Amino acid sequence: MFPITDSSQTIIDCLINTTIKKGVELQCNQNVQEIKSLNGVWKINTKSASFKAKRILMAAGSSKFVWNM
């Protein structure tokens, strides 16, 4: 269901603005290599960096996403 603007960009803007207001750090366009849970903290390794977080939300953003476990 789209807002009155009939544009998905309105929803994207709303989500991004809310995350910024809540102090959420976005890491976009990251090629995730590994995700581990260590003592209640997530460690995410990408091709270019390593991140730690209490919580994570992954959005694949592609119909070509493959989850290998």
Structural descriptors:
single chain; 69 residues; alpha+beta; 3-stranded antiparallel β-sheet; 20% helix; elongated
Global mean pLDDT: 82
Query: How do the strands of the widest beta sheet line up side by side?
Result: 1-2-3
- Report the major sheet: 3 strands, antiparallel
Q: What class would the helix/strand composition place it in?
A: alpha+beta
Give the SSE string. Answer: HEEE
| Straight-line distance between termini | 33 Å
Low-confidence stretches: none
Share in β-strands: 15-25%
* Shape call: elongated
Q: Give the helix tally.
A: 1
Rg, please?
Answer: 15 Å
- In helices, the fraction of residues equals 10-25%
Counting DSSP E segments of at least 2 residues, the number of strands comes to 3
Description:
This protein is α+β, with helices and mostly antiparallel strands and 69 residues long. It contains one helix and three strands; from the N terminus they run H-E-E-E. It has one helix at 8-21; strands spanning 32-38, 41-46, 50-53. Strands 1-2-3 form a three-stranded antiparallel sheet, with no helix packed on it. The longest helix has 14 residues, at 8-21. The N and C termini lie far apart (33 Å). The relative contact order is 0.11. The model has no long low-confidence stretch (mean pLDDT 82).
